[in-house]
Each structure stands twice: as C-alpha cells, then as structure tokens.
Design goal:
Helix content: under 10%
Strand order of the largest sheet: 4-5-6-7-8-9-10-13
Radius of gyration: 25 Å
Largest sheet: 8 strands, antiparallel, barrel
Strand content: 25-35%
Number of strands: 14
Oligomer: single chain
Structural class: mainly beta
Shape: globular
Order of helices and strands: EEEHEEEEEEEEEEHE
Length: about 260
C-alpha cells in the first residue's frame, strides 16, 4: 500500500483480466483537486446618509466587510487517543528491498478489496534514473483473485522521507501527492516486517487504525517466505497490538496454489 495517499502503503494496482492490457492505475491514483486561490476580501462602503440631527450617526456609515473562505486541502483527523507510532530503528533500506515480500495479512483498502487477497506480493528495487520527481525506488505489487488467473498489478515509485519512513505514489505524480509508507518493524534474519500507511489516526474500541482509502491507509504483515508460518504471523500481530493497532482490520491473505512467477 496508498507497500497508492499514497511499499504497499499505498498499494496501488491496475487490473489485468485475461488477455486484456492493464488499465492505468485505475483506482490507485489519488484524485487531484485543483485548489483555487481565495479571492481577496471584498470591502464595500455605503454612501453616508445625510441627517440634520448632529447627534445621530447613521449605521450605514460603517463599512461592510465580506470575505471568501480560503480553500484548504483535506487533512487527517487528530491523533487523539492514538499512540505516536515509532518506526524501525537502524533501518537498512538496501536490505529491505533486496528480496520479494509475501503479504500474510493486510487491511482492506480501496485499491485492493478482499476478493483480491490471494498471492499478494511486493517487490522493490533502486531506480537508475530518479526522473523528474526524484523518486528513488521502484515498487511492483501483485495480487490475484480466487481463480488465481485474474491478476492485479501496480507499478509505483517511492522515496525515503526519514529513516524507516517512505512515501509511495504513481510515478507520474509529484512527491507531494505520495502517501506515507512506514516500516514499523523489520527483521531480515527472522524474515518479517510490519508496514503501516502512516500514523494511525482513527480511534476504535480495539485500538487505532489507518483509513481504508488511498493515502494514509492500510496495514500489512510481510514475510520473506511465501508459506505461512503461523507462529511468526502471531508474533508480528502481537507487536502491532503493542503499538496500539486495532488488529481487527488485519485479514488473512491466501498464499497457497499461487501461479508460478514468469
């Protein structure tokens, strides 16, 4: 995941059905709304009313001031009641992107509904040419439906914002449109990682969670091995619970009977 805002944290995908060519990141790209600069305040003054009584001041002498509200971008809800989320320390990006990741559990998001929770993978690589928007990392996400033939793919870009915090977006969008993708915990030797679409901001009775849209959305448990290790998955779930996450959003991904990779 928006492992999109926005390196599945933004897991954005295009759908390929049969032999049809993939569509261009149909649901992955965040909608971009142009913000129209606010107009300057309009000041209108009425003509004073003439009166023969020197002690009476007409209320029409006071100027009328009207203003047009300034358009503001949508922001996340306050983090009230949610822990500040710590991310992995001494994060080694090169190690993290060195091999394929298999998703064992994840949150439903707009661009990856539950009916595509089969054989979900994420691969990352360094970009030789950062391009116009200076993205540093290629992101390749893949998922299937239950028939294991209907495939969804997303080719995105990412850059590192701070330590284990990255941001992801379709490569044609500028950096400011990218969504947060935070590596909360990562252990290469044990072969797991916990990924969050940024700081959880939605308080629930079971903890806190991210949204389910594109940016600022999603939660993932990665493993290096495709075959599910239930003990390992439960351990990472325990880490997520300690971090304050609502675990009810994490649903199983089926990693069995997956197609042989090309």
């Amino acid at each position: 995941m928006t492992f999109h805002s926005h390196l599945l944290p933004l897991l954005a995908f295009t759908t390929t059905l049969g032999d049809h060519a993939p569509s261009l990141l149909n649901t992955a790209a965040p909608s971009m709304t142009s913000l129209i600069p606010s107009q300057a305040p309009t000041i209108s003054t009425s003509t004073p009313t003439t009166t023969t009584n020197p002690t009476t001041v007409s209320p029409t002498m006071a100027p009328t001031i009207t203003t047009t509200p300034t358009a503001m971008p949508t922001t996340r809800a306050p983090f009230e009641g949610c822990k500040d989320l710590d991310v992995a320390v001494n994060f080694d990006l090169d190690s993290f992107i060195s091999a394929k990741w298999y998703v064992q559990q994840q949150q439903v998001v707009d661009y990856l509904p539950e009916n595509r929770f089969y054989c979900v993978t994420a691969e990352y690589s360094k970009r030789g040419n950062p391009g116009l928007f200076r993205y540093e990392i290629n992101v390749k996400n893949k998922a299937y439906e239950e028939d294991r033939t209907t495939k969804t793919e997303g080719n995105l870009c990412a850059y590192k914002t701070d330590n284990a915090k990255l941001a992801v977006a379709p490569c044609f969008l500028p950096r400011f449109a990218a969504g947060p993708y935070w590596v909360v915990v990562y252990d290469e030797e044990e072969g797991y990682a916990l990924i969050s679409g940024g700081q959880p901001s939605i308080k629930t009775e079971n903890g806190c969670k991210n949204g389910d849209g594109t940016n600022n959305s999603g939660l993932w448990i990665f493993t290096r091995q495709q075959e599910r290790n239930e003990t390992l998955v439960q351990m990472v779930r325990g880490i997520a619970a300690d971090k304050g996450f609502d675990l009810t959003v994490l649903l199983d991904v089926n990693q069995t009977n997956c197609p042989t990779e090309e």
